[in-house]
Amino acid sequence: MKDLTPLDPLLHSQLRLAIVSLLMSLDSAEFTFLKEKTGATAGNISVQLDKLSTAGYIEITKSFKGKKPLTTCKITKVGLTAFEDYVKALKNYIE
Amino acid sequence: MKEELSHTESLKIINEMISEAKNSFDKNGSFYFLLWGWVIMIANLSHYILDKYTSYEYPFVVWLITIPAIVATIWYSIKLKSKAQSQSHLTRLYGEVWIGVGISIILSLIFMSKINFNHTAIIMMSAGMGTYLSGRMLKFKPLVFGAIALWLSSLICFTLPMTEQHLVASIGILAGYLIPGYLLKSMEK
Question: Do B86 and A29 touch (CB under 8 A)?
């Protein structure tokens, strides 16, 4: 019987998993892009981004695009490893 | 949004988001091939005609046309970057490849006297490498064939005198940049 590792609770959430999956495949993405692709509210995304950033899974850069504030997100090495481990664990559960 | 996720739901989210990210790859690569294709082809042809059929002393002034092209390239890439809401790994890599090609070309121009004025052959070789990698990254075969045309023109340039090299290079650029560039543009629509 396979040893089932528990799924990372930080990633095992619909919105956070969606955000990390998007960032996994991109070099960087803006807040509005994440909002558009996930269909979530700005408030909810902000909260989840904060959680992911505090855990060191993503890196958030704040700047300006013209006069508008711009939030850009990027996955970190820690986030990448966590995502890979999550997918591995998920595979074990499904198998 | 509900927090309890089943394993299959998790997989579904991952798959959906990865394909969403894939679809957001920007499609503006043809602009650079067309701009530089026309600029280099016109400059090479003019240089060849002035050198071969006139007694004009400074045929190389035609290359000043590359200065507005450099400005246009920088302006366009800044405009694209500020418009894009995301950047894929591929887009970043694509840009890096052409920066590398640009640096190689500048080095061959600085030391053209040391390489026996075979800089046109070296430029075709470097352009071939950039086009080959772009073709592989975009999975677009005409660019790969374009790269072969550029390498072939580099090979021929090495065997010819400097003046004739310009004629071969203009044909190489037509086959290596312009034809695949227009095919790429028609795919982007």
Answer: yes
| DSSP H helical ranges for B26-118 | 29-53, 66-83, 89-110
Show me where the domains of chain A are located: 14-89
Give the pLDDT band (50/70/90) at residue B3.
Answer: low
DSSP-assigned letter for residue B117? T
What's this model's pTM, rounded to 2 decimal places? 0.81
CA A61/CA A53 separation, integer angstroms: 11
Is B85 within 8 Å of A12 when comparing Cβ atoms?
no
Average pLDDT over residues A26-51: 94
CB proximity B6 to A under 8 Å? no
CATH match of A14-89 with 1.10.10.10? yes
Identify which of B2, B7, B22 has the shortest CB distance to residue A93: B7
